[in-house]
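yo

u said u wanted the structure for the complex thing, so here. seqs first:
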Amino acid sequence: MGDGNGPSGYLRNNFRGVGFWNPTHILPHERGKRISRMDLNECPYPPSPKVLDAIQEAATGLNLYPDGTCPQLSEIITERTGVPGSNICYGGGSTQLLTAIAEISVGPGENLIAPDIVWRRFQGVFQVVDAEVTRVPNHDDASIDAAGMVSGIGNNTRLSIVLTPNNPTGLMLTEQELRHICEGTPENVLLFIDEAYHEFAIHAGGPDAIEIVKDRKGPWVVTRTFSKAYALAGLRLGYALCSSEEITNALRLATSTFNLSGVAEAAALAALADTDYTQFILDENTREMNRIKEGCWEMGLTYMNSVTNFISIDVGVENGPVVRAMRDRGVRVSTPGYDATGTYIRASTGLPEDTDAFLSALKEVLAEQSG
Amino acid sequence: MGDGNGPSGYLRNNFRGVGFWNPTHILPHERGKRISRMDLNECPYPPSPKVLDAIQEAATGLNLYPDGTCPQLSEIITERTGVPGSNICYGGGSTQLLTAIAEISVGPGENLIAPDIVWRRFQGVFQVVDAEVTRVPNHDDASIDAAGMVSGIGNNTRLSIVLTPNNPTGLMLTEQELRHICEGTPENVLLFIDEAYHEFAIHAGGPDAIEIVKDRKGPWVVTRTFSKAYALAGLRLGYALCSSEEITNALRLATSTFNLSGVAEAAALAALADTDYTQFILDENTREMNRIKEGCWEMGLTYMNSVTNFISIDVGVENGPVVRAMRDRGVRVSTPGYDATGTYIRASTGLPEDTDAFLSALKEVLAEQSG
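structre next:
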């Protein structure tokens, strides 16, 4: 094989020498063992039994491609959001849509604007589209600077990316901040609001981005997912609510219409119908999140005031060794970005026993590392 | 909303004014009715009962993200192909990988080379990457011109795309033709061989592309899928076998490692283990394909000599009206490309009763349309 291991000319510049990165990797010592998975912002509870029934029924049809426009699911989403089915594009997780949204709007040499602190997959998205990126520094409390997200837009900016609640901070924008961004972003810039943690924001009394962005004169896209509050990360179903059919069809072209699992629509319908189960997940999450916050407070640690199912905590020492030592103890947490630098770790909520394991492991590890 | 319906400046040129295209769409008159789905090259049989059991078991873990590198499945694929797990990238169907392979290798203004007759999603891929495309005319019998695929490569060519068996022709390349392409494609060009219908080719006594491409000095990728011979189109699991880790990691960056369903790996393992069921599918397919060919021969129609689960037939009249009239009769077939032009239709094999329905509907429709 002539291409060896070094960077190779037949790949585009931005795809050369990419390192291996697999946050979903299960280490050999973790196989078949009960571990606390608190690094991927997953729901610790299995999907609703009604969802499992729906999947079992739909699975017999997995020899067929499903209708990628999910007509039945779209009816319900339209009812709840006012966005017509023609303006909804489904993705294999909203993760697939993030990349597609960037791809349809910015090309090499063009500009996009995003907060400095942002979910690490976005780093991958920026690399894929090979755009120039304006990073807007977050406020001192790590919240997004809404005014900066508007004033930072330049003549070459094609896309503005906002997350509410944001990941890894868990912080959401206020209605006023969202309005400022929606109104201040020029009409020739696509405004993209990632609402992967939408249901947690609503549960915490936060604003609904769709209701605000609808008043915007320029183009917009809002993404949501079934991965988090519906306990369906492994289903891979997210959706983009778009301001026009043109944006929607561009996203469908980028993602192809052959991108959804044949059980996704049935599972999503069952998940939306089982409101008690979603409420249970959200309530349990709040309880365990409060326990984590209390535990950190007792340990004298500061943390970001997350409304979601994950929290970023300042452990006061270098985060990389803490994350590794926690993982050795069966508790998986993460650093907030690609790089293991800084003093913050990010942990998602788990079952009550995961909270116990997390707090006691963190105490041990910090005693070791600070001592 | 300020973006109206017309082409809009905030989208990249190649994503403006894209039309709605949804081959998976179920028409209102088809809902809840037994129709013959012969337009999407699906397997007409449900997944193996062992696969359904595996899915049911894995579904309880759908709250979690699976390991996107499928370590257990990789072990088996490595055993069968000799390609190490570090050189295998999984996709949400091989369809997702087609786009990613083009994205990592060609950018706007750069060149890729492909046969003129090619699966229509590739048209979408070409549009997504905004590359200059050299289309190599197929031979008169619609087979790929292997010599032309080599001689057509220019200084600006970064990617060569070959399909064996090809879609919509169903024709495969010989070992000699594959060797000519593998040897003749320069070392600075990524050679991509799409083997979505690999299992059908082997069943028909054809060559195994991996065994041939391994001798190539330059870089290569081969894609395969669980969608066809394993009756799992709706599972969305395909894989790319790559000549280097660098290519593999570039594909993982483009597709993200959060792209697979949580039931995919378990289902694929069960499907590979149930060799009797795969043999049953392949044998049934051959029988029904032969019945379709005989029926066409009796009607005096010529067709391409497909080795796959679909066949392109010259109906002698404009194909668009034929496809629509067949669909009105409950038999879904397709035109070979995006456009309903020419006199060929493409039909995939179904159950025995689908073959009956297809042949009798085609007789009726052609009597009408030619009369």
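The two ends of chain B are 50 Å apart (CA to CA). Residues 275-298 of chain B form the longest helix (24 residues).
cya
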